[in-house]
Design goal:
Blueprint lengths: L2 H21 L5 H53 L1
Helix pairs in contact: 1-2
């Protein structure tokens, strides 16, 4: 199973658990809605950060692959010129 699927599963479980915990807590409706809103914002922020990190990692990997491909192509071209 990929790390992305595990992370998304964990976040979904944490989110569902948080919502259920808030819904079954003995608070007023306005307080419950406020808590749900805060939890939703927290999970959203965490997910955005993970997506940013993933995108940055992918960008670095692609850049490295591009550099390596250019090196291989350059070496191959140099051999044909000699």
């Amino acid at each position: 199973m990929s790390n992305t699927k595990v992370l998304l599963g964990f976040l979904a479980g944490a989110f569902a658990g948080s919502i259920l915990g808030v819904l079954f807590a003995p608070d007023k409706g306005t307080e419950t809605r406020r808590k749900i809103s805060k939890k939703t914002a927290d999970v959203s922020d965490a997910l955005k950060e993970k997506v940013r990190d993933f995108a940055e990692d992918m960008k670095d990997m692609l850049s490295t692959a591009k550099d390596e491909a250019e090196d291989v192509a350059e070496k191959g071209f140099s051999k044909t010129m000699n």
